[in-house]
Each structure stands twice: as C-alpha cells, then as structure tokens.
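Fold it.
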Amino acid sequence: MSHKLAISTALAATLTLGVLADAEAAERRAKKEKCYGITPAGQNDCSNLAGTHSCAGQSTVDNDPGEWHLVTKGLCKSQGGYTRKEAREIIKQLKKAK
C-alpha cells in the first residue's frame, strides 16, 4: 500500500467514525425528553418556565413544576413528572390559588 493510499484510507476512516459518532449522539438525544417537576433543588438541566433563571443548577426548590430534568423518553410519568403543557397548567393553577 502506498503512503498516499494509507493516508487517504486513514482519513476516510476518521471521517466515517466522526459521522457515526454524531449520528449516535443525535439518536441518544432523540431518546430523551424534558420532565418537569422532578428536579431536586440545584439539579435542574437549564432555564425554568418562569424565566427567573437561564442556567443549569439554579433551581432553589425541590420538585418545582417549572424546573425540568432530561430523562429517558417514556419515563417521566413513572417518576411523577409532567410534560411542559401540564407543568404550565399547574403553575397557572398555583398562581390563581395565591
């Protein structure tokens, strides 16, 4: 095998592995969903529904219905969580009760 052919083959293999890794990462993300209301304080994954913060780890209350955590798709309900729509409705009801 010539030096040029060896380099071309190695480059092609590297690019192929990179594409496969990206595809696997996308597939893993597709198998996840946001689950609201199950997050311990300080362990949320990103911004909340109320808009009071925009970063992970900033929740201050356990199981706040406006905070979310990424879970395996289909497991949210079994963990006592809510969809985004359900969480918004719960927050709306809590505001009315005050």
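The first helix runs from residue 3 to 30.
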